[in-house]
């Protein structure tokens, strides 16, 4: 499984030594037209899946906290842009940790499910609200973004997707729905009714479709994603102060409703704990399919 290509010929070639944030997340300060914190995350070492395990959610929260309270190199080079990129060649993310879900349901452990979902909510809320007046977050999607992975993309300020990318919410296949902020994040872009359809129709949308809908902000050729980020930062940074003010105003106009997110978490946990035997079997089938894909890709 090959790594993503190294970006060469930066507008400025200066960079700070990459930091292994924890097991799966690596951050690197890249000096493009402005300072960029490049955040790359890798598949889970145990399962081989590019999914949001409880540990990965905690790691991303740590990255977000470090941006808000920088020390060392990050304090010396304030973050103006943050890029989120998967190192997996085919997936931005398959979404939540289905094995963890199944384990909690089997153990009747709604407390752990709620803790996980609340941690996801806090992460989505943080990316959606906490840095809007001072930094711009960018999702670089170079494959499939499903479930919680799609939610993560939606929580950022600007979405760049390569043409082969695709997006969707498969949770309804096993009787569930996105566990945190999909409704609010989507509704701010396409309206509540269309958001509901996208969360329940089992469809996988192409990057081109979502570009036409205004969910993907920029569409680029396969393998051209990093160059697209470079161009965006170069153009945006020329008028960054004014653009950040407009960005902050947009989020004040259509804010992320945290209280509604908490209600969604409670509804999600309640629904998860009452899945039927047939729905559990469908979840197990998806777990098996994901595991086979991980083995084949490895």
From TrEMBL:
Q: What class of enzyme is it?
A: lyase
Source species, domain of life = Bacteria
Task: Give EC number(s), comma-separated.
Answer: 4.2.1.17
A Pfam family reported for this protein in Swiss-Prot or TrEMBL: ECH_1
Q: Which GO terms describe its biological process?
A: fatty acid beta-oxidation
* Lyase in keyword set: yes
What molecular function terms (GO) are annotated for this protein?
Answer: enoyl-CoA hydratase activity
Q: Which UniProt keywords apply?
A: Lyase
Report the family membership.
Belongs to the enoyl-CoA hydratase/isomerase family.
Among PANTHER family, the record links this protein to: ENOYL-COA HYDRATASE, MITOCHONDRIAL, ENOYL-COA HYDRATASE-RELATED
Which protein are we looking at? Enoyl-CoA hydratase
């Amino acid at each position: 499984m090959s790594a993503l290509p190294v970006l060469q010929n930066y507008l400025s070639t200066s960079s700070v030594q990459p930091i292994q944030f924890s097991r799966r997340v690596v951050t690197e300060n890249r000096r493009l037209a402005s300072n960029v914190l490049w955040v790359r995350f890798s598949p889970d070492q145990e399962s081989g899946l590019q999914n949001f395990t409880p540990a990965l959610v905690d790691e991303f929260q740590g990255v977000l906290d470090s941006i808000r309270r920088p020390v060392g190199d990050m304090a010396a080079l304030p973050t103006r842009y943050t890029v989120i990129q998967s190192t997996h060649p085919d997936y931005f993310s398959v979404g939540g940790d289905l094995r963890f879900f199944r384990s909690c349901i089997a153990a009747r452990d709604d407390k752990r499910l709620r803790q996980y979902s609340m941690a996801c909510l806090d992460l989505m809320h943080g990316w959606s609200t906490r840095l809007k007046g001072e930094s711009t977050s960018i999702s670089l999607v170079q494959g499939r973004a499903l479930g919680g992975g799609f939610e993560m993309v939606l929580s950022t300020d600007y979405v760049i997707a390569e043409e082969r990318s695709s997006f969707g919410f498969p949770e309804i296949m096993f009787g569930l729905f996105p566990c945190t902020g999909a409704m609010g994040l989507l509704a701010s872009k396409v309206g509540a009714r269309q958001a509901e359809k996208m969360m329940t129709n089992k469809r996988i949308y192409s990057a081109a479709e979502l570009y036409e809908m205004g969910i993907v902000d920029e569409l680029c050729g396969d393998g051209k994603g990093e160059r697209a980020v470079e161009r965006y930062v170069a153009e945006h940074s020329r008028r960054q102060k004014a653009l950040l003010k407009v960005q902050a105003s947009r989020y004040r106009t259509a804010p992320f409703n945290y209280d509604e997110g908490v209600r969604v978490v409670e509804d999600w946990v309640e629904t998860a704990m009452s899945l039927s035997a047939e729905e559990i079997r469908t979840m197990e089938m998806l777990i098996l399919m994901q595991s086979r894909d991980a083995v084949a890709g490895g």
